[in-house]
Design a protein that fits this description.
With 484 residues, the protein is of the alpha/beta class. 30% of the residues lie in helices and 17% in strands. The protein has helices at 7-14, 19-22, 27-33, 64-71, 86-95, 99-102, 118-124, 175-188, 239-243, 248-251, 254-257, 267-302, 334-337, 361-371, 386-389, 459-475, and strands spanning 39-45, 74-80, 128-134, 146-150, 160-163, 169-170, 196-201, 309-315, 341-344, 353-360, 400-405, 417-422, 425-430, 436-441. The chain binds calcium ion.
Amino acid sequence: MSRTMTRREAIASIGALSAASVLGLGNAAEAKSSSKRPNIVFIMSDDHASHAIGCYGSTINTTPNIDRIAREGIRLENCFCTNALCAPSRAAILTGKYSHMNGLRTNDDTFDGSQQTIPKLLQKAGYQTGIVGKWHLKSDPTGFDYWNVLPGQGEYYDPVLIEMGQKKKKKKGYVTDLIADLSMDFIRNRDKEKPFYLMCHHKAPHRNWQPDAKHANLFEDMDIPEPQTFNDDYATRGTAAHTAEMRIDKDITPEDVKQPFPVGLSPEALKHWKYERYIKDYLRVIASVDDNVGRLLDFLATNGLAENTLVVYTSDQGFFLGDHGWFDKRFMYEESIRMPFLARLPGVIPEGTTNKSIVLNVDFGPTFLDLAKADIPADIQGRSALKVFRNKPPKNWRTAMYYHYYEFPAVHSVRRHYGIRTDRYKLIHYYHDMDEWELFDLEKDPDELHNLYNDLAQTETIAKLKKELERLRKELKAPVDKNA
Ligand code: CA
C-alpha cells in the first residue's frame, strides 16, 4: 500500500457500507437489522483487580460506571484466569485454550497468529471483528477486520499506535481516552449489515500507573487503608512466597512512585509511604478507565445499541494491592487469579444478578461463539458459560479449575507452579527448580495465610485433590511435570 489508510477508509474497504447507513436511516432500522445475533463489546483492562471495583466490595475506591454493567447484568464471583500474566491470559481468551495448547506460556513468547482463534471463528460466522488498544502478543493481530493497537506495553501519554500494520503513529492524548475514542470510531464506521465483535483493551491500570491530569489529585488529602495481609511474613509457606520480588517494601522503585524515596523514615513508615503512592496512582488510572467505560456505555445507548449488545468488563488477571505485602500478580493466590467479570445483555442476562460458578478465561470465547450461534470446535478447552450468564448454570458445570504459571526465571522471580482450585480448597505445586506444595482451606482461611500441606489431618483431602488435579491435567492434555 503506497500510503497510510485512514481508519474510515480501512473500515469502508472491508465491506460496502450498508444501505441503511448510506440512506441515513436511524437507530431503529439499525437495531432491527441486527436483532438476531447480538453485538459483543468486550472491554478488558490490564491488571485491574476485582477488589478495586465498587460492585466487588472495594473499600478503597468507587467505580460507578463499571458498576452499571453489574447493576444491569451479572457479576461473576469466581471468574479466574488459567495463567495470571498479561500475554498468556490474552492468548487464552483469543483461543479458548490453555497456554500449553495455544503455545503462549510467558510474556516472552510470540503468539502464533496462524492458529484458530475466536475472532476468526466469529468472522466466519458473519461478525465484523475489531481490536483496539493493548495487544501485547508480539505477532500482528489476525482474525480482525480492523485493528489499531499499542506496540508492546504502550505508553500512557501520547502513545504510538499501529493501525492495520501501517506505520506507527503517535496520537496526542491520554491512552485510556484514546482507546475509548477508537472503540467508538470502530462502532461508528462498522458495516451495519453485520453484528460486530469489538475487543476494547485498555492499557491501564498496568505499571507504572501514570494518571491523567484530570485524576492526578484524586485521593490527595487522604490515606488509603492498607489491606489486612499487608505485613504477611509468609511464615507457613514455602520458598516461592519468600523469594518473590514484588514486595512493596523492597521492590517498588522510585520510577514507580515518580519521585525519590524520602530519607529518615522507619522501615514501616517507608513501606506505608511507598504503598500510598503506589495505590493512589493505581486507583487514579482506574478512575479514568471507569470514566471511559461510562462514555462507551452512553455511546451504545445513544446509538440504539444498548439493547442488542453484550457488554463485558473484565481484566486479564487480578493484582496484589499490597495484599501479602506485594504488588503484581503471577501467583495462584486469590488476588492474582481472580478476574473481575461483569456482563450485560438485556433479555438474556437477568439484571442485578451474581453467580458463584467457576468461570475461566478460556470460557469467554466459546460463550461468545454460542451467543453468535456459531459452532464451538471440539479442540476448544473452555466451555460456553451462556447458561451461567443466564444465572442458570448447568448441573454438570465444573467444580474445580486447573492453573499453570511458567514465567521463571524472570522479572519478579515467581517460581513455576501449577495447581487446582475447588470451591473450598487450593492445592499448589511449585516445580522446575524445587518440589514444594501448598494447601489452603479457602473457607477457613480466605486470605491464604496458613499452608496446611504438612498437616496430617489433611492427608485424605490432599489425596483427593491430587487425584482430581491429575484428572484435570489429563483431560486438558497438560504436559508432565518438569517438562511442563
Ligand atoms: Ca495484565
